[in-house]
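hey can u check if this looks right to u? its 409 residues, i copy pasted from the old doc so theres a chance i mangled smth
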Amino acid sequence: MALEIDESKRELSRVKELLKNEPRGLSITDISRILNMNRNSVSKYLNMLLVSGHVDMRSVGVAKVYFLSQRVPISAMLDFSSDCIIVLDANLKIVQLNDNYVDFSGFPREELLGISILDRELPVLTDAIDPHIFEEVLRGQDLSRELWWEADGEDFSFLIKMIPTVFDDGQPGATVILENITDLKRTEQDLKYALAEKEQLLTEIHQRIRNNLQVISSLINLQTSDVKDPDAQRIVQQTQSRIEALALVHDNLHDSPDHMHIEVEEYVNELVESLFVTYRVPRDLITYSVNAPGVLIGLDTAVSFGLIISELVTNAIKHAFPDGRKGYIALTIVKDDGNRVVVSVKDNGVGIHDRYRSGDERSIGLMLVSTLVDRQLNGTMEITNTNGTSYMIQFIERDETPGSLTKEY
């Protein structure tokens, strides 16, 4: 038996040496003729060299041409990686490992090769391998997990990957890759801290703006507490309503997960409710509804949007239901995948006068709405006067950017 093995090794060496001098490759017939070897024997040796990765084959017409493989040996490939790589057999014995793990472990390579990781405490590797989980890898299951490891009072983080491996003799094993992700984790942690600080700062900014707007509203109240003129009182009310619309934007941004978007339905409900309180609307005469499920808008849009809703609802409260007339105000807001926002504010009141609808003569409130729609939102507004007044506003919300936080309003 030993003689047969030695004979095979010699013949394999002859075939490899011949192919080394023939980089373009040779067919089975060529090799058989040059080496004076039986074709069946040549075919057998070439198959052995193919399986072991020493030889490659390509078809040229009907012939098969064999040439030496230029693939890099696996032992060399292991050291190409910046990770620690260890190859284990089914008994958890180390079969191969790269220089990175040798250096990391502090043991000589000769001490590591052939030992079972169950017999010696090895850095990271012993903690990384659970024999029961390892059975799943041997059955062909890729596994990966993160592992914290401490050495000399310092914490390290590793990503452990276990890849099923089959050896030349058909026996199962596993390739274990230990990727040091400590710096990445520390960077992630630093980013989390920075993000938390940014969120805290944004929260404080929105809260301070909200408080400042409330102070302004209170000062207006104090300054005009002795005002008896009804027209002047209406102007004060309108000013306070607009301030409240702005304050509610920052209230909702304060509660928003990203501090950059508000949930429209909640915001509009709060805004309309505050207007009903400000103008002392009888709840048994006028009702309202808001339908905007799941719609989110950003800060830039929210400011103009809030002022528009405030003005249109205020107009309906003041003018649509004279002399104790009953009615309702319905608000619907939808947003499609293309960021197109459609706003509908409709009442079933007495209707708007044609001269206001056409734009020939408009109140300050409607002029403000028209300016906000045209110049701030780059949108369109359509007013209809059937069974009450209906405002249909459409615009495309642009993507929010960090710079939008500085936009003036």
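The chain has a mean pLDDT of 82.
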